[in-house]
Amino acid sequence: MAGVRLASGQVVRAPVVLSNADPHVTFTRLLPPEVVGDKLLRKVGGLRWSLTALSLFFAARIDPEALGLSSGNLWWLAAPDVEACYRVGQDGPLDQLDTLPGLFLTVTSLKDRTKRKGDIHTLEAFWMVPYDPFAPWAGTKTGERPAAYLALKDKLQALMLRTLERALPGIGAGIVFAELGTPLTNEFYCASTRGGLYGTEKSLGQLGPLGFLGDTPIGGLHLCGASTLAHGVAGAAQTGLMAAARVLGCKVPELLDKDGPALTLLPADKPAAWPADLQAKAHRAAGLRP
């Protein structure tokens, strides 16, 4: 590995390259096949990918605490059947659903209260779906997708809003903006293969030595991210530390120097415990006087 050529054509020379992209992107889009080799291409071609999701981004004029919401993440289920959330969309067409068995919701402006705007809060809701119902439009461009795709998006957005109203009666009346992202949105903005939320599927045949541990047969190229050791924020962060340790020839604990910059942890739901400058910023965001 000698470096990276950017989309502009500029070449950045480097003896070591870390790729946080998933294996499909790294080995089939960022590298020519003659460099990757047939064996590795066959392995990548046989990979299975994690579930994807619909992502509803919306803003609402609400009092989150009055609705029982906090800075935490909420999983709402209509019945005590978690697996039902993962079966949705696998047993029949998505556009024929009348309700959802559950969804995930978070109030992002309670995680960071300085980001709200007066009495308007930002929220995100997610619902796990398979990729295949959206595959017919995989070759279309964002902003130019056909009417059938847009019609399906409208139906699914309305379905998610109805489910939100069922979970939190009254929330719908406060919504001032809503936009739905699909698995194709994930592909476009995150370059995630098949819109996968967690990179490769974490099954036994794709973990450990059968998966991607970070080293590659291409000299100077290392992998990190959700498709290597583990998924999620913690898993992906750990792979970054492991990749850095490999490159630097040290152990992971050596990277976590106790003499490094201090971190301050602040409780999101207790702004009274924040420093004065942050309290003032949060008050201004809420349209209040400090």
Largest sheet: 5 strands, antiparallel
Q: What count of domains describes the coordinates?
A: 2
Number of helices: 10
CATH class of the largest domain: Alpha Beta
Description:
The protein has helices at about 25-30, 35, 40-45, 85, 110, 145-165, 185-190, 230-250, 250-255, 275-285; strands at about 5, 10-15, 15-20, 50-60, 75, 100-105, 120-130, 175-180, 220-225. With about 290 residues, it is an alpha+beta fold. It has two domains: about 5-50 and about 225-255, no CATH class; about 50-190, Polyamine Oxidase, Chain A, domain 2. A hairpin with a 5-residue loop joins strand 1 (about 5) and strand 2 (about 10-15). The relative contact order is 0.16. The model has no long low-confidence stretch (mean pLDDT about 90).
Short description:
This protein is of the alpha+beta class and 290 residues long. The protein has helices at 23-28, 33-36, 38-45, 83-87, 108-111, 147-167, 183-190, 232-248, 252-255, 276-285, and strands spanning 3-5, 11-13, 17-19, 52-61, 73-77, 102-107, 120-129, 175-181, 221-223. The strands form 3 sheets. The chain has a 5-stranded antiparallel sheet with strand order 5-6-7-4-8.
Produce the secondary structure layout.
Layout: E1 3-5, E2 11-13, E3 17-19, H1 23-28, H2 33-36, H3 38-45, E4 52-61, E5 73-77, H4 83-87, E6 102-107, H5 108-111, E7 120-129, H6 147-167, E8 175-181, H7 183-190, E9 221-223, H8 232-248, H9 252-255, H10 276-285
Parallel strand pairs: 3-9
Antiparallel strand pairs: 1-2, 4-7, 4-8, 5-6, 6-7
